[in-house]
Amino acid sequence: MKFFRLLAYDYKNGFRVGTVKLLVMVLFVVAFCIDFYYRKHVTYSFDEVIPSGTFIDYLFSIFAGIKEYTPSKEENFIIPVKWLLLHLFICYSTLYYPFRDLSSMGLNILVRTKGRLTWWFSKCIWNVSYVLTMYGVILITVFAFCLITKEPISLNITRMFVTDLLQPGDIHETLSFNLVYIILFYPLLILISLNLLQMTLVLIFKPLYSFVVVTVIWLTSAYLFSPFLPGNYAMVIRSEYVIQKGLSASEGMVMFLFLVSVSLIFGSLYFRRYDVLGEE
Amino acid sequence: MKKTFSRLLAIEIKKAIKNKFFIATLGIATTFSLFSAWYMIDHYRFQTFLSSIDGNPMTNASSLYNHWIGGEAMSLGFTLFFTLLPLIAVLPYGWSYFIEDKNGYVKTVVIRSNKWQYFLSKYLATFIAGGLVILIPLVVNFLLVASFVPAITPSMVYSLRYPVMIGSLWSTLFYTYPLIFVLLYLILNFIFAGLFATMSLAISFFLRNRIAIILTPFFLIMTLHYSRTFLAYRYYNEISPINYLHATCVENAANAWIITGQGLLFFVLTFGITMKLGVKREIL
Amino acid sequence: MTTIQIEGVTKKLKGVFVINNVSITLSSGNVTGLRGVNGSGKTMLMRLMAGLILPTKGTIKIDDKILGKEITFPESIGILLENPAFLDSYTGFQNLKMLASIRNKIDDVQIKHTLEKVGLDVESHNKKYKKYSLGMKQRLGIAGAIMEQPDIVILDEPTNSLDTAGVELVKQIIRQEKERGALVVLACHDTDILDELADDIYYLENGSLVSTTTRGQTV
Asked: Looking at the domain assignment, is residue A154 inside a domain?
């Protein structure tokens, strides 16, 4: 079977399995947007006019995360549930299909491919495509929400919202336009890399325990402010473009490339000798 | 007939506890609880050292009751354990009915007993496995921390260190008989973890995908946790199990009525669905 | 003396008739054969007899007790339906022991005896089920059906995945079950086996009974 035919098969079947999840994601994002809209109204209720939130402000609020946590008896760690729910749901959405395709019908496909690597790379491309689609759904939903609520569709970040609603800590006086790129691309890049990592881990741990491992990575990243924990780069308010000692974008890119390379290389090597037992 | 049920229940409990998923999950959960214990014992020793250098030693401010995993909300161990609690509870045995139904094992069991007995024993075993996988790490953590940190009765003078607010569930006990308070919380955790596990069992009647069956309760509880955001500045009682299963307040005070109401709702839904649909369902 | 009376039974699943107005009476000490192409309703009829599914119309009586009303399942029954179904993480012996302990009628010695009877040697008793070959799984399935010496034995394609020696062994077991006085229901694609073992053979087509053979006599 030619690579592109295999990819077409993966697109068709993988997206069919994941359609409902795309719809659930729309509901989540609508809830996140209402949340931001509502918080804005509560926080500025004594102002003459409730300030408008732009398209990028809404996205920022979704991908913001939480500021660095310093453990103390006086301040509890509060999980960034919105941020976590979004990322974990996307990880869950890509968890089932590649694994399912290693049993039942998928075995017939596997033996018809020219080599194991063809099958593996096709699944990787499907995985990245699915995450991109999820991300597209998030952007479109926020866009539609802004249209409906007549919020401005622009890429101007409102600093006041960042200080009042997202509370990142030691924030810059002015926010660079580069921050827009961070908001638009970094959560996506980290999502792609951790989804690929999860797919590779499935070969070793089976899906549920791989999901647990990836969840631990996301949660630990929220708890520990560290350049070595990838989830930190998916928290926009920890970026160098938001706070004084924030995480550098270039290091984030290195992390992305590292995780993608490790997942692809390790996954390919491991899958070449992987025993396909057809267990579901 | 009664004897058949007790034998079936014994078999189910054995299957639920003596399986590799129970052991692996218990290992993971215990690791989280040990992380917390290690961090908090170290924290206590450091605090004691600082106090010994200068000023008020604040002896009553640090005790077992704000250093065990249910009393602290500052360590990574606490974060992982309580956030993943709904998932950990399901992993050992929540998937069992789905697998047995899929491979046809159910029919070999029901013809030797009956559907009612099968589903009741399945429900109880799932509940117990879910409860134990949470209870054991909590007990291990409590005992370990108790070996290093004294069990001084919490004092209201240090309210920031002991965040159990007035009107919060069993708050009077916390400041008078803290050990009973902890025991009650351990039971509460056992019950809710058991209920989370049975959610998967009930969901098995609607979904045909093992991963979805196991992860759906986790996402439902996370969504419930997120929904608190819409009550911000309006309602100050805790509605999320992830928070109220922690013995001291993480954000809002634990309310007895809300906890009882949610517990009953979870029970009625999971037990009702399992027994009603299970007994009604034809075994193909 | 055990009897199964199937009276005007119809079963509809998702709007499709899988069994259509079937009436048969079966009694102990006999081997009843069911024959038909794939999807003709043999397995469904066996499920109905076992009480796993209930008729849409008609009744099934086990010793004059209506299945699904007076009793949920036949009081003494052993089944092997389609594929053998056991738990992967337990050994063959542990799987049988677990099932046997529900009724608590037989002890470990009898379980081991049954395992040997179906041709599973001592070594395989302690092997995990997931490591069993298809043939071994099938033998274990047969052992599960007969170990408690039930009054009714339902075997659906018991010779699947078995080699020639295994098929002969199954034939021998069925004969022994008949001699013991059990009511045996057997579905098999191999016409020779059915002709050789069954006292009555019922032919099913699209869920309906089309003809009956009683030891060389077609009705």
From this structure: yes
Residue-wise pLDDT for B209-252, tens only, equals 889 999 999 999 999 999 988 887 778 888 999 999 999 888 88
End-to-end CA distance of chain C: 25
Inspect the interface and report whether the beta carbons of B15 and C51 lie closer than 8 Å. no
φ and ψ at C156, to 5 degrees? -105, 115
Q: What is the pLDDT of residues A122-138, one digit of tens each?
A: 999 999 999 999 999 99
- Domain assignment present for residue A141? The answer is yes
The verdict on residue A279 lying in a domain is no
Type of residue found at B67: H
| Yes or no, beta carbons of A219 and B80 under 8 Å apart | yes
Chain B residue numbers touching A39 (CB-CB < 8 A)? 232
CB-based burial label for A266 (10 Å; 0-12, 13-18, 19+): middle
Question: Domain limits at C60?
Answer: 1-76+185-219
Domain range for B152 is 2-280
Domain tally for chain C? 1
Count: domains in chain B: 1
Domain tally for chain A? Answer: 1
Say which CATH number the domain at C59 has. 3.40.50.300
B74 closest CB neighbour out of A77, A84, A209:
A77
Nearest CB among B8, B103, B282 relative to C102 is that of B8
**Predicted pLDDT of residue B2:** 66
Contact C73, B114 (CB under 8 A): yes
Question: What average pLDDT does range C137-164 have in this prediction?
Answer: 93
CB contact under 8 A, C144 and B108: yes
The helix or strand, by DSSP H or E, that contains position B132, with its residue range, turns out to be helix B115-146
Choose the mutation target among A73, A216, A221 for the interface with B, i.e. most B CBs under 10 Å. A73
Report yes or no on C18 lying in a domain: yes
